[in-house]
């Protein structure tokens, strides 16, 4: 076994770790970063046991010490299933997942020195990993991203017996782990006071490939996605109505940039690009963003005294020209169960100077999109009120200021008027759009100030140093104690 001391010193090169995610590894960035750090900084062989579906980052796939084992995905629940049979799925599904996890953790991969498991989901993950760690005489560390029982309560209600049982399992098996990591000081306090669990805070930090994009990188990205950006969900919008222009015929011209020879420039009348990433789940109320966009559209029209009787082609041309307030393009990335519902809502909106596009980007293009945007929006509210949104961490890594929903511990990440703003309603978010984008792109001093604040703080800490100082000593100590 590997390990050299309780103080968390060097982990021997012959060691092995298993990273366990009962979910899509491509949509679990923190666990991908764990795997890379285990391989790069702890010099361990790393086995990832997870579901497939979305491609993980190329750095993970290309590292010779990282081995990805994809489990078979549980099929989506059929809508035609009678309601009376649905409770049986709550029992049958975790049973099948439990057996599959045991097969992979005890048979398919070599015995690791330590299992590091993402929580949630807690059931059956914590039970399976604990049993596997006992069978294989391995250590067992939980990385607490949130509480599983609070997520389950979103759909079943806090008073559900299933939620109570889930809570008991999560707490019991959380206490028998050899070590714990968590994402905030608020969660650390909750685990210590009410769960009897001592956890080490490991703040999310972006890896090195999350950074501001160069002008050339922006242009190439916009060229790749230009066709998708120009295709509206409804009959027309402020992006598809490029009146009196031949931009569509020129491959070197995008909605944001123009290339002449080797020279690339940003358009003076480009839309402001706002990015929001989401898993399209109930803990993110996407209607807040739709309402705020509609309010921005109506308020700008009123401020400019626009005449509804004005000829349509003249109005589109004026909107494209800016006139104090720019067009807003919202690009929403991510996959999830409520995506189709909101796309249908977007298609019904009657917007003049706001457009929405949804897309799923390659892992290498997502950081480029963040690094090319003007503002990020986060609608994450947290089922427990104790976790922080990884998407905001990634945005900050790319130098992108953020408007985020306000909740109990978000101030551990977002510092108001320094790197972002907080809002509690759609009206407040619309006000922030009006303030930040007035005079865009030339003026907009408040937006520039927030960006400078993000850039000033992003260089002080990164994932590698945070992991080296907090996660590596815990992993080293746990492996040493388990091998003694």
Automatic annotation (TrEMBL):
It is a single-pass membrane protein. Pathway: Protein modification; protein glycosylation. It is found in: Endoplasmic reticulum membrane. The keyword Transmembrane applies. The keyword Translocase does not apply. It comes from the Eukaryota. Residues 38-199 form the Glycosyltransferase subfamily 4-like N-terminal domain. It holds the Pfam family Glyco_transf_4. GO terms for molecular function: mannosyltransferase activity. Keywords: Endoplasmic reticulum, Glycosyltransferase, Membrane, Transferase, Transmembrane, Transmembrane helix. GO terms for cellular component: endoplasmic reticulum membrane. This is Udp-glycosyltransferase turan. It comes from Nicotiana attenuata.
């Amino acid at each position: 076994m590997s390990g050299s001391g309780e103080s968390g010193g060097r982990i021997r090169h012959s060691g092995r770790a298993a990273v366990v995610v009962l979910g899509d590894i491509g949509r679990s960035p923190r666990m991908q970063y764990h795997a890379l750090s285990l391989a790069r900084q702890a010099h361990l062989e790393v086995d990832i046991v997870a579901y497939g579906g979305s491609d993980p980052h190329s750095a993970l796939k290309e590292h010779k010490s990282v081995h990805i084992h994809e489990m078979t995905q549980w099929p989506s629940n059929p809508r035609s299933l009678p309601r009376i049979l649905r409770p049986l799925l709550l029992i049958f599904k975790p049973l099948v997942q439990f057996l599959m996890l045991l097969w992979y953790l005890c048979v398919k991969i070599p015995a690791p020195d330590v299992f590091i498991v993402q929580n949630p989901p807690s059931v059956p993950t914590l039970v399976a990993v604990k049993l596997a760690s006992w069978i294989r005489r391995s250590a067992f560390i939980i990385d607490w991203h949130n509480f599983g029982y609070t997520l389950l309560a979103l759909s079943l209600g806090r008073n559900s017996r299933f939620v109570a049982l889930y809570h008991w399992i999560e707490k019991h098996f959380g206490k028998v782990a050899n070590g714990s990591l968590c994402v905030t000081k608020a969660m650390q306090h909750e685990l210590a006071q009410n769960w009897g669990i001592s956890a080490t805070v490991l703040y999310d930090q972006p890896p090195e490939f999350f950074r501001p994009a160069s002008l050339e990188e922006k242009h190439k990205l916009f060229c790749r996605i230009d066709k998708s950006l120009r295709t509206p969900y409804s009959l027309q919008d402020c992006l598809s109505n490029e009146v009196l222009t031949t931009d569509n015929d020129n491959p070197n011209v995008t909605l944001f940039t123009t290339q002449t020879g080797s020279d690339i420039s940003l358009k003076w009348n480009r839309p402001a690009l706002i990015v929001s990433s989401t898993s399209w789940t109930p803990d993110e109320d996407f209607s807040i963003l739709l309402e705020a966009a509609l309010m921005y559209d109506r308020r700008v029209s009123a401020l400019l005294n626009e005449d509804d009787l004005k000829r349509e082609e003249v109005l589109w041309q004026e909107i494209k020209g800016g006139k104090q307030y720019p067009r807003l393009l919202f690009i929403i990335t991510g996959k999830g169960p409520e995506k189709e519902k909101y796309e249908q809502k977007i298609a019904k909106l009657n917007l003049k100077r706001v457009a929405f596009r949804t897309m799923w980007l390659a892992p290498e293009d997502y950081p480029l999109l963040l690094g090319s945007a003007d503002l990020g929006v986060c609608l994450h509210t947290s089922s427990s009120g104790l976790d922080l949104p990884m998407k905001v961490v990634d945005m900050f890594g790319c130098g992108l200021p953020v408007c985020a929903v306000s909740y109990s511990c978000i101030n551990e990440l977002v510092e108001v008027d320094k790197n972002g703003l907080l809002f509690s309603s759609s009206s407040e978010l619309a006000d922030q759009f009006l303030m930040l984008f007035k005079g865009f792109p030339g003026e907009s001093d408040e937006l520039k100030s927030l960006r400078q604040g993000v850039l000033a703080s992003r260089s002080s800490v990164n994932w590698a140093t945070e992991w080296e100082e907090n996660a590596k000593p815990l992993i080293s100590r746990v492996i040493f104690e388990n091998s003694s």
